[in-house]
Design brief:
about 280 residues; three-stranded antiparallel beta sheet; 9 helices
Length: about 280
């Protein structure tokens, strides 16, 4: 029996209640306030507690559909979607904005869906299914490609106009766009992020996918702070002093590498290099 096998046996009842989940605060508050009133109407003198019905919970990627049940009177509430859905005219179940947003963030990083699930599990969070993550990633990837192509087209037009304003005769020399039909979504996201910085890129994609960042929220403020840092770092990299520091750092690394791997000087005699072999001198002589 391995260590993970010992964790399959629960030490408490309803073990899932001791894990972490992602809920939208507004939806959770509405559920609590509504079902507390309904519980009182169901049985006014009941002193029981309302708890999540973990046996009936419905997982939708990172999002959840939950209901309450009373531990005494048996009251069971209606199901509540504790997430916001992406608006869509298509039939079928709508995507949760948190699932779309997670893929928007992942596509800006080298982290795979598998690694993302591993991070969630390590934080004691129930991770989405692999197929669900991949399906959502495919949807985001298509939108990223379209947004990046449109953005590159705008950049090309602006550069062409600038080229014409400067008096250059052949504005067709500007070549920013490329045939990116076979580019993976991450490549498009990388280009979009370079041209717009991370925060603007995330906001653009989130809006296009119907999972916009909440204006005025702490998330928006964190993205603004990240944008300031990106701008400051970009400006710092262009300073001559920063370029000199990077050059000196590379020079020190080269010297350190040479001192470790090439401690002895190399001499040449009769066209042969001294490899450190004892027979080398005899061969050269």
């Amino acid at each position: 029996m391995t260590l993970v096998d010992t964790y399959l046996k629960a030490n408490v009842s309803s073990a899932d209640q001791f894990t972490y989940k992602i809920f939208q605060q507004n939806a959770l508050q509405y559920m609590i306030n509504t079902e507390m009133k309904n519980h009182m109407l169901y049985k006014q003198d009941c002193k029981g507690d309302l708890k999540f019905d973990t046996e009936a919970q419905v997982k939708w990627g990172l999002a959840w559909q939950e209901r309450f049940q009373c531990n005494i009177c048996g009251f069971k509430s209606a199901f509540h979607k504790l997430y916001e859905e992406v608006e869509s005219l298509k039939r079928g179940r709508r995507a949760a904005t948190v699932n779309i947003g997670a893929q928007v963030g992942l596509i800006h990083t080298p982290i795979s869906n598998k690694n993302f699930s591993e991070i969630l599990n390590a934080a004691n969070i129930i991770s989405p299914s692999s197929s669900g993550l991949q399906k959502c990633a495919n949807k985001v990837s298509k939108v990223v490609e379209k947004v990046n192509k449109d953005d590159m087209e705008n950049i090309r037009k602006n550069l062409a106009n600038d080229n014409k304003t400067l008096g250059l005769s052949n504005e067709k020399l500007v070549r920013v766009e490329s045939d990116a039909r076979n580019f993976p979504g991450r490549a498009h996201a990388a280009v979009l992020m370079v041209n717009n910085k991370y925060s603007n890129s995330v906001i653009k994609l989130s809006v296009q996918l119907g999972a916009a960042i909440t204006p005025g929220s702490l998330v928006a403020k964190q993205l603004k702070q990240r944008h300031k840092i990106d701008i400051r770092n970009a400006q710092r990299k262009r300073l001559i002093s920063s370029k000199l520091r990077r050059a000196n750092s590379r020079r020190r690394k080269y010297k350190l590498h040479a001192s470790i791997h090439y401690p002895l000087s190399v001499y040449y005699k009769k066209g042969l290099a001294d490899s450190g072999n004892e027979d080398c001198d005899n061969i050269c002589d």
